[in-house]
Amino acid sequence: MSKKIGYETELSMFLCLILRHDPGVIGITVDEHGWADVDELIAGIARSGKTIDRKLLEKIVAEDKKGRYSFSGDGRLIRANQGHSIPVDVELEQKCPPDVLYHGTAAEFIDSIRAQGIKRMSRLYVHFSTDRETAVKVGRRHGKPQVLTVDTGRMHGGGIPFYLSHNGIWLTEYVAPDYIRWEDTEPET
Predict the structure, then answer these.
(1) Whole-Å CA distances, 152 to 111, 124, 138, 183, 187
(2) pTM for this structure?
């Protein structure tokens, strides 16, 4: 049984695909910083058979609960803030993370993570949240949720860089197993 989603949600998901993973799906490109021309984006989406205009695009960006997208200062460009699988530099500054951050995953991946650490997989970075509740939601998207508590303060102290995206997601490239607080790990319900 499929869950019926609204048209704006469908468009937001399509924007994720375009701006994070495959701008070519609508025949556009993004620059080295992930920016796409808004007019080209709207025209490309229209060519794909979906209806969108500037007003609806602005509404989707403004109302996105996760703050996935940003407009450039002049409003002519748009990009995803993080989560890319295509090589882009979203101009993140290195930041000092909190001492502990949380990573949501599925229970089925725990054995692999215990052996190999948390890898970025198809994305450019490993993603973290500042609270367990958000990490549970992330993990639930992949199966039975599991929340990993990561000693990010110790990682940063050891010279591992961290970045904070424009929408508050903490990022790094890899987490070795010894930075995960395994005693805090238990399946979420």
Answers:
(1) 21, 18, 19, 16, 21
(2) 0.75
